[in-house]
Amino acid sequence: RNDYLGINHYQCHFVKAYNGENAIHHNGTGDKGTSVYKVKGIGERIYKEGIPRTDWDWIIYPQGLYDQIMRVKNDYPNYKKIYITENGLGYKDEFVDGTVYDDGRIDYVKKHLEVISDAISDGANVKGYFIWSLMDVFSWSNGYEKRYGLFYVDFETQERYPKKSAYWYKKVAETQVIE
Q1: Averaged over 75-85, what is the pLDDT?
Q2: How far apart are CA 40 and CA 36, in angstroms?
Q3: Does the pLDDT of residue 130 top 90, yes or no?
Q4: What is the model's pLDDT at position 140?
Q5: Is a pLDDT exceeding 90 seen at residue 37?
Q6: Mean pLDDT score, 60-79
Q7: Please, are residues 80 and 1 in contact by the beta-carbon 8 Å criterion?
Q8: Distance of CA 5 to the CA centre of its chain
Q9: Which of 50, 56, 84, 151 is the most exposed place for a label (fewest CB within 10 A)?
Q10: What is the DSSP letter of 92?
């Protein structure tokens, strides 16, 4: 038995059967619409109408996190507790007037926190949430193009600046109210 289950969640995939030739292209540059995942005999990733995507073609579907949590609750009734160990939005942040106005990141995290709250209300034992990440970091697949942090890092000077999301998340942490 484990003490807890850690779930890292950024996106979901919708897949349909596929028997054509293999084709995989990882969108590492943020050129929206360039990702391709087709594996013969396994499946092809598809995008459903009305579900938003990031510039890196990651779908924004908080319901998928809820579904994952509830699957653990229902299929593994002896689990002890769940922690969301990573969750956040990679974004093309623009540094303006000493900060980043990252409303998209705030919306993404807000919606994911809301579905976690719903899962708790529906009986799941979720004990914690860890946002990814505190500050912008190097990505093995995207270099410094995609930023995840609550703090903008000027990689030339190593100066750090709180983004709008940092102030929003601080308020959520202090009040435990998602606004």
Answers
A1: 96
A2: 13
A3: yes
A4: 78
A5: yes
A6: 97
A7: yes
A8: 17
A9: 50
A10: -
